[in-house]
Design a protein that fits this description.
Elements lengths: L7 E5 L4 E3 L10 E2 L1 E2 L6 E7 L2 E7 L7 E3 H6 L4 E10 L5 E9 L2 E3 L2 E3 L2 E6 L2 H4 L8 E3 L1 H4 L2 E6 L4 E7 L5
Parallel strand pairs: 6-13, 7-12
Antiparallel strand pairs: 1-2, 1-14, 3-15, 4-5, 5-6, 7-13, 8-9, 9-12, 10-11, 14-15
């Protein structure tokens, strides 16, 4: 992110494209809320009547949800099993997998899809900006995204959904 924070990026997993030159014309951009260290962008996600800031992280293989958030809103999640994942230090961990119910990002309706649950309380205790959801590949791949980090704006450019 140190390199990207002075750039604009257009990202499409469907087209296998990361483009630093495309600047799509979008009527309504959203504002990026950087994390306190300025390393990762936060964007808004809306669950029914709840709106929260979520971390957008292309390095996460699956969307991660704090297990304590799942316990607070059990109606939004369905346990579907478990999987073995690798954390950022290379350690293998077993995580429960859930189906997250649908939600909206930037006016687009993201259907139910798989997420992994982790206890993020150790991170959230130290943060003025708690992270309850980190959007990873399972969510990000459903749309084309544009981030203009220098001008602090972003948008979903084209939406494909979980079926793509």
């Amino acid at each position: 992110m140190d390199v990207l924070k002075e750039s604009s990026i257009f990202l499409s997993y469907k087209k296998s494209l990361l483009d630093f030159k495309t600047h799509p014309s979008v009527e309504n951009f959203e504002s990026i809320q950087p994390d306190p260290r300025g390393n990762q962008p936060y964007i808004n996600l809306k669950f029914e009547d709840q709106e929260l800031k979520v971390l957008w992280d292309t390095g996460a293989g699956i969307t991660i949800v704090d297990i304590n958030f799942i316990k607070r809103f059990p109606e939004m999640f369905e346990l579907v099993g478990q999987s073995v994942g690798t954390d950022s230090t290379g350690n293998k961990i077993v995580t429960p997998n859930y189906k997250i119910k649908s939600f909206d990002i930037d006016g687009h309706h993201f259907d139910s899809h798989d997420v992994a649950a982790l206890d993020m309380s150790h991170i959230n205790l130290k943060s003025s900006n708690p992270v309850y959801i980190t959007l990873g590949f399972s969510t990000i791949r459903q749309a084309d995204w544009f981030f203009d980090f220098k001008n602090n704006k972003w948008a979903v450019i084209e939406f494909y959904g979980a079926k793509y």
